[in-house]
Amino acid sequence: MTVLLTDQRTIQTAEEVVTIRQAVRQRAVELGFNLVDQTKIVTAASELARNAVQYGGGGRVTIDAVEAFGRRGIRLTFEDDGPGIPDVELAMKDGYTTGGGLGLGLSGARRLSNDFTIQSTPGKGTRVTITRWR
Asked: Is the pTM of this model over 0.90?
């Protein structure tokens, strides 16, 4: 996989979640994503950024324009140094929440992405990487 362009941002506030949504949409437009795919990657980015603020105490995101096997895509890597997720398998189930929400953030982001990986260590933080291909 080749990284064509990269952008790193911090996520500490709800306002920065909005800024990240805008940056992801802009990158999707630049890469020629149709409106449906733009909406999917922006929605996934919003959920993961909000999770980083709400559960991870803030964090950072790397927005990469990537190319592999003749396809272009957007890869987003969200990282935080928060408490981590004790049971990732449980956290990935629809409806599971520790914060009173709908429990669709992680599982929804997975459904809206073509590629999804999550790594979490209790006491050390969480890293979620998603990619949406055009």
From this structure: yes
